[in-house]
Amino acid sequence: MKDILNEIVEYKRIEVDRMKALRPQRLLYADVERILDGEVPSLKTALMQSDTGIIAEFKRRSPSKGWIKEEGLACDIPLEYQRNGASAVSILTDGKFFGGDDSFITEARGSGVTLPVLYKNFVVDEYQLFQARLCGASAVLLIASVLGRKECGSLLSVAHELGMEVLLELHDEHELDYVDLMPDVCGVNNRNLGTFVTDVENSFRLASMLPSDMCKVSESGISSPDTILSLRQVGFNGFLIGECFMKAENPGRELGRFVHELEKLSYKSSERGLNIKVCGLTDLGNVLDVMSLGVDMLGFIFYKDSPRYVSPERMDIICMAFDQAISSDVKPLKIGVFVDSAVDEIVTAVARFRLDGVQLHGHEDVGMLDSLRSAVSSVCGRDITIIKALCITSRADVKAGMDYCDSADMLLFDTRGKAVGGNGIHFDWSVLEAYDGKLPFILSGGIGHDDAKDLLRFSHPRLAGIDLNSRFETSPGIKNIGMLSRFINEMRVLRNKQQ
Ligand SMILES: O=C(O)c1ccccc1NCC(=O)[C@H](O)[C@H](O)COP(=O)(O)O
């Protein structure tokens, strides 16, 4: 079989010569010079700072798969990627083999894409770097196996002079000396470009051979959030995913679903440490202050009999400020708390307040949870995190949590008290030994500022987080920021000592 990469590169050189004949390099450069003052967003910064690290790719066809989405529009899909949680976008611009064009980047920018855009092509000549800069790319791909080391170094310098970053793609250990050229980002391609066979093991194999402080991207063949969690553990910051999204009917929506799964898994694996949920918020300023503490979940109570009830009008105001205030490194999930509410009512709230999850604090059964999940999916076109709260006095109450294993994403164990929730008293945490279900749980019920040491002594394989409410309040629904901040810091200090 003829090596497809060689065929592409041979053709690419001819194509570039043809383009140079049509538009000489000096004329192209004159156009580039006019825009050089404008900056493009950094791919490296986006990957190092973002939550997902996903570089979602716009790829209409490939030599191995043929057309994947011939009708896919560059003014539509990249923007949908941006809206659904991508950290950056990669756009295939090669025409003959991948059905792309430079104009796709221009169109994506025109549609409102402000994320970093990677110019994905087979760059063999600096002429292509000028083209990349002209159409609005932030970074270009350089593939070690098709460039001599010196040639690669000089293309890298030109890219930098043009204000673009370089993602240097490696495939095996023989190319490791290219890393000394100091690319901004180093990619490990899991796809053998000669045969097109993908194997993510390639990233795991090369991870430890790359400098630990290098921004690293695993490219191709990633199709599950589990793989991302494992790749993160060996030091990868970015994950380039194309086919898995492009083959879906709606690539943006598929990315949204993938990101949601990834967030849920991150909680399950406690990758972020012990997650903190602050529940019963009602006031806009107070919400913003709590967010600044870097907590993981914010709970809003939609149960009218609670002293922490938040009205829809108040919630609209909170949501508006929440969306504007949000920066990628502080992104708590918005959780709505409901007590025996009708499915329709909950779905309306999920859509109106763009809730990431719901906590069901009444007598909701498995059937109700299933109907809720499918109603949210058909109305909002996405999944939500469902937390089933259970009131605990005995081991038997804990065992009841097993019933929800296939319907909920998480459990919350709260104290059974006079009120439905927010009683401010502990239950005996030792009864949780009886819980051997697969769902992660949040420990709740009367947790206060003096509980830090006990909490860190308490361990359970499924403990994913803690819930803070009435014992951190100045009045019902208003949290004491100083008290919360001291407690969260104490937990972090104690935890670091423990590790
Ligand atoms: O807090 C409430 O007023 C409340 C009312 C009705 C249903 C749930 C409610 N709270 C939800 C929670 O998850 C609380 O944080 C949980 O009950 C623990 O509260 P606390 O005992 O005050 O720590």
Structure, explained:
This protein is α/β, with parallel strands linked by helices and 499 residues long. It folds into 2 domains: 4-265, Aldolase class I (TIM Barrel); 271-498, Alpha-Beta Barrel (TIM Barrel). The chain has 18 helices and 20 strands. It has helices at residues 4-22, 25-35, 43-49, 77-83, 103-111, 126-135, 149-161, 201-207, 225-233, 243-246, 251-268, 284-291, 312-325, 343-352, 366-380, 395-399, 452-457, 481-498; strands at residues 54-58, 61-62, 66-67, 88-92, 117-120, 139-143, 165-170, 185-189, 215-219, 238-241, 275-279, 297-301, 333-338, 357-360, 385-392, 410-415, 441-443, 463-468, 473-475, 478-479. The protein has an 8-stranded parallel beta barrel with strand order 1-4-5-6-7-8-9-10, surrounded by 6 helices. α4 (77-83) runs parallel beside α11 (251-268), α9 crosses α11 (251-268) and α14 runs parallel beside α15. It starts with a helix and ends with a helix. The site of the ligand O=C(O)c1ccccc1NCC(=O)[C@H](O)[C@H](O)COP(=O)(O)O has 25 residues, from β12 and β16. In the N-terminal section; belongs to the TrpC family. In the C-terminal section; belongs to the TrpF family.
